[in-house]
Design brief:
about 20% helix, alpha+beta, about 240 residues, globular, single chain, 4 helices
């Protein structure tokens, strides 16, 4: 008897009351795997292409697909600091999460240069923000709700450039007293790390975390990728 093939896409669960449309998938997840797609054109020409990501659950079923929306001129001129929109769609092609990152300089100790990202779910409805904190050593971020109230904090490592090991950003409670999750840049192997800018991440959070904040954590993962790992891989290339 032929074995039943595993579903490629995660089936949509029933949406609880008050859940933004499309985020019902997140109610059943405590972790997400984020796989950036390898772009052959980028490898051959060195020209920065739009970032694309597949978001999967722990058994490999696709939950969402994310694609950057930015101009070719902005990508080549501004590099990892570029402003962009990120369209995150469900398996039916419907956009359920929208990210907006404004242009910021690469400075880290000046309030006018601090990075931020707005998260909308559904598009047009703001559910939260990711804001870089003004720190002098460790890269830290605050996750805020739609009212700019701090919900979680993210504490990064002293060095984000590591060979043959994962790089972890700890997700802490709002007061910073307890770790409740993490965003991990996963080591993908020497060849892929050196010759491409296609990164793999893991996002872990409490199962009972508000789905809106889970969506904001997805946004935090994207921002961290652009800030710390796009530049490293562009330098390698």
């Amino acid at each position: 008897m032929a074995q039943k093939q595993e579903a490629t896409w995660m089936p949509a669960p029933q949406a609880p009351v008050g859940c933004p449309p499309g985020l019902e998938y997140l109610t059943q997840l405590d972790q997400i795997l984020v796989n950036q797609q390898v772009e052959l054109l980028e490898i051959l020409t060195g020209c920065e292409t739009r970032n694309k990501y597949r978001l999967r659950n722990s058994v490999g079923q696709q939950v969402y697909f994310a694609q950057e929306d930015s101009s070719c001129l902005v990508r080549q001129c501004c590099g990892p600091e570029r402003p962009f929109a990120m369209n995150i769609t469900d398996n039916n092609g419907v956009e359920v999460i929208h990210l907006e990152r404004p242009l910021r300089c690469s400075g880290w100790c000046c309030f006018c240069c601090l990075q931020e990202l707005e998260v909308q779910a559904p598009p047009g409805q703001v559910v939260g923000y990711v804001k870089q904190d003004c720190t002098f050593v460790y890269p830290n971020f605050t996750i805020e709700n739609e009212s700019h109230e701090p919900i979680l904090t993210i504490k990064g490592p002293l060095c984000t450039c590591r060979c043959c090991s994962d790089v972890e950003f700890q997700v802490m409670s709002g007061d910073g007293s307890q770790q409740v999750g993490k965003i991990s840049k996963q080591w993908s192997g020497l060849v892929k790390e050196w010759f491409t800018d296609a990164d793999n991440f893991g996002i872990q959070f409490p199962m009972d975390l508000d789905v809106k904040m889970k969506a904001v954590m997805i946004g935090a993962c994207m921002l961290i990728d652009f800030m710390f790992f796009e530049q490293q891989n562009n330098n390698n290339n």
